[in-house]
Structures are given as C-alpha cells and as structure tokens.
C-alpha cells in the first residue's frame, strides 16, 4: 500500500482519484488548497504526489518546483494532471520536475498504469500533446457523468 498525496481543487476529480487509488490498495490523501500542499506533503511523507497544474494560489508547476527543492520531497515521484493540454505543456511540466503527465479527462487504465509505474520507479512513456492517453477501446473517466 502506497501513500499518495493528491493536490486538486475540483471535488469530483478528488473523489475519482481517491476512489481509483483506494480500489488499487493505496492510501490517498487529498489537499484542495495548493497553499497547504507543501506542508501536507512534508507531514504525510507520500510515496507519490499527483497534482493538477491549473490550481488557484500556487500553480501546479510552481508546486512541483518547490517539491523538487525540498530536501524531504525531492525524490518523491510526481504525476501532473491537467485539462489544459497544449503543445509544449508536457515538456514544461517535465522540466519542472514531474516524472509523468496525464491529460484530463483521464483514461482510468492509463491513470492506474502510470501510478503503478511511478511507484515501481519506472518513468512512464510520454503522452502525446492533447491526447487523453486512452488506449484504443479504453474507457474515459468523466467525473461529471454518472457511471453506466
């Protein structure tokens, strides 16, 4: 069981991420205000951090940089998620210090695979800019829709 910190300001995304992680046997901890994320990460000592990029107050990019500069958090893998994917975003996110990037709406399969790869110390393959990362025939997760 891995401890995973989620930094996300959208309640539906938090529920989705927490439910997925718990279903895979992990212990998720959510922070909704990025101003408190660094302190929460230091206290929680996560095995992985999943952060949105478009956050109020402290952006996900800035949070990633701050974590990389923090002695206690510098080696914790980071997965960035964002709904705003444009050409060059993945490169900026990786340059800030994230090991993985997943665009929203997330593919449930890709999300779970990326989490497991990061926890094993493997760097996931790059995602195509603007692509959701859903495998052919894969299921997209839209927290705004009700499950089938």
Report on this model:
With 148 residues, this protein is of the alpha/beta class. It has a single domain, classed as Rossmann fold, CATH 3.40.50. It is built from five helices and five strands. It has a five-stranded parallel sheet, with helices on both faces. Strand 3 (48-52), helix 3 and strand 4 (78-82) form a beta-alpha-beta unit. The longest helix is centred in the first third of the chain and has 13 residues, at 11-23. The N and C termini lie far apart (29 Å). Residues 128-148 have low confidence and may be disordered.
User: What is the share of helical residues?
Assistant: 25-40%
Detail the poorly predicted runs: 128-148
Number of domains: 1
Overall 3D form: globular
CATH architecture: 3-Layer(aba) Sandwich
Strand order of the largest sheet: 2-1-3-4-5
Q: What gyration radius follows from the Cα positions, in whole Å? A: 14 Å
Mean pLDDT: 85
Query: How many strand segments?
Result: 5
Helix count equals: 5
Structural class: alpha/beta
Distance between the termini: 29 Å
Oligomer: single chain
Q: What is the assigned CATH homologous superfamily?
A: Response regulator
How is the CATH topology named? Rossmann fold
Could you tell me the strand content as a percent range? 15-25%
The largest sheet is: 5 strands, parallel
Order of helices and strands: EHEHEHEHEH
Descriptive labels:
148 residues, alpha/beta, Rossmann fold, 5-stranded parallel beta sheet, 5 helices, 5 strands, 16% strand
């Amino acid at each position: 069981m891995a401890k995973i910190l989620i930094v996300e300001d959208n309640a539906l995304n938090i529920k989705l991420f927490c439910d997925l992680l718990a279903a895979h046997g992990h212990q998720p901890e959510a922070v909704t205000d990025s101003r408190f994320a660094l302190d929460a990460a230091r206290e929680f000592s996560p095995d992985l951090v999943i952060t949105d990029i478009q956050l109020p107050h402290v952006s996900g990019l800035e949070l990633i940089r701050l974590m990389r500069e923090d002695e206690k958090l510098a080696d914790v893998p980071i997965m960035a998620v964002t709904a705003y994917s444009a050409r060059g975003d993945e490169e900026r996110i990786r340059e800030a210090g994230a090991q993985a990037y997943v665009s929203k709406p997330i593919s449930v399969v890709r999300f779970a695979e990326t989490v497991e790869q990061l926890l094993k110390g493997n760097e996931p393959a790059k995602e195509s800019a603007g692509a959701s990362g859903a495998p052919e025939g894969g299921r997209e997760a839209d927290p705004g829709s009700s499950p089938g």
